[in-house]
Amino acid sequence: MTLIYSMAIGLASAGTAMVARRIGENQEDANIAAFQVILLGVTIAISLGVLGFIYAEDILRLIGAF
Prior knowledge:
Blueprint: H1 2-25, H2 27-54, H3 56-62
Helix pairs in contact: 1-2
């Protein structure tokens, strides 16, 4: 869980910095950057969710829950 949280915080920080910089340069570029950050976040979330669903038993067995 810590690894997933770390990745999420890093993505949020990087996305915020990219969008903030683009706002200073050009509003249209800021919109594109924000869309790309959101798309990347949703893609990663769906991927991790699917993998977690498929390998739920194996993950729980690895952490000693079974």
